């Protein structure tokens, strides 16, 4: 079964007027993983789709949704999937791919049949990002051994972290989708510092491995007009092209970043020094 919702894009001047409930309504995606369901949110930010699939007792088939007006979900799209739960299986046009936790699968345009399956034990949690695609590239699995791994940050500033580039153009051919996974080292809480925007791309963050009864405060907005959203485990947040995307948690955690837009240059950032944020 598939559930879906639609989100309009917001002008930054409008977003300044949003209170807590409105910020959460327009940007936060709360219930990504429901037993034996695929949950999708279609955003007008670069027509990016954020979703989750949790097969428990049933195989889940990816079917088209009304916003796409296409016979198959991937007729004009590409997709990235990162497993953040137990071991699972994705079958793409008859080819089986096994994904352990923190492994990724890129699925190219024109794939017709995509199914999400569970194996024995803890159910998988397949986190999904999808963007429009103009060209077909082959489906490819990317394990953590294949990732580009970068050490970032400093214990002094509580932001030491390990960045794993998974679905990026140096590893996988894509049209515009880019995805990766960042792990905060124990005792560190800040992600994405210095904060930045990139007006040529939007982004979505998905926070996971957040301990029970703990939280992550996600910061968004223009660098001199910031807002915040408190988030729980396994929740995602949309980040417009005009917005920073950074966060601090009450414990260490991991998060998936996914982006789409004008280019594939990971370093395309307009940085704002921490002491200039407002």
From TrEMBL:
Gene3D superfamilies: Jelly Rolls, pectin degrading enzyme 5-keto 4- deoxyuronate isomerase, domain 1. Pathway: Glycan metabolism; pectin degradation; 2-dehydro-3-deoxy-D-gluconate from pectin: step 4/5. InterPro entries: KduI, KduI/IolB_isomerase, KduI_N, RmlC-like_jellyroll, RmlC_Cupin_sf. It comes from the Bacteria. GO terms for biological process: D-galacturonate catabolic process; D-glucuronate catabolic process; pectin catabolic process. Zn(2+) binds at residues 196, 198, 203, 245. Binds 1 zinc ion per subunit. It catalyses: 5-dehydro-4-deoxy-D-glucuronate = 3-deoxy-D-glycero-2,5-hexodiulosonate. Its EC number is 5.3.1.17. Its cofactor is Zn(2+). Catalyzes the isomerization of 5-dehydro-4-deoxy-D-glucuronate to 3-deoxy-D-glycero-2,5-hexodiulosonate. Belongs to the KduI family. This is 4-deoxy-L-threo-5-hexosulose-uronate ketol-isomerase. It comes from Abyssalbus ytuae. The gene is kduI.
């Amino acid at each position: 079964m598939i559930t879906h919702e639609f989100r309009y894009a917001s002008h930054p001047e409008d977003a300044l007027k949003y209170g807590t409930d409105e910020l959460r309504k327009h940007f936060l995606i709360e219930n990504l993983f429901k037993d034996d369901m695929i949950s999708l949110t279609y955003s007008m930010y670069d027509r990016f789709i954020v979703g989750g699939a949790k097969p428990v007792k049933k195989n889940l088939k990816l079917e088209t949704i009304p916003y796409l007006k296409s016979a198959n979900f991937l007729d004009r799209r590409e997709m990235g999937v990162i497993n953040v739960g137990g071991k699972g299986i994705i079958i793409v046009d008859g080819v089986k791919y096994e994904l352990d936790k923190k492994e990724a699968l890129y699925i190219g345009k024109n794939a017709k049949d995509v199914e999400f399956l569970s194996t024995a034990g803890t159910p998988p949690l397949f986190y999904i990002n999808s963007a429009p695609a103009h060209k077909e590239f082959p489906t490819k699995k990317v394990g953590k051994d294949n990732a580009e791994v970068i050490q970032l940050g400093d214990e002094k500033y509580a932001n030491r972290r390990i960045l794993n580039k998974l679905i990026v153009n140096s590893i996988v051919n894509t049209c515009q989708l880019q995805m990766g996974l960042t792990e905060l080292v124990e005792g560190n809480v800040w992600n994405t510092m210095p904060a930045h925007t990139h007006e040529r791309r939007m982004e979505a963050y998905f926070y996971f491995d957040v301990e029970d009864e703990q939280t992550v405060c996600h910061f968004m907005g223009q660098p001199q007009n910031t807002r915040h959203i408190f988030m729980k485990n396994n929740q995602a947040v949309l980040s417009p092209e005009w917005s920073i995307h950074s966060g601090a948690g009450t414990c260490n955690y991991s998060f998936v970043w996914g982006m789409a837009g004008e280019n594939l240059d990971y370093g395309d950032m307009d940085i704002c020094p921490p002491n200039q944020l407002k």
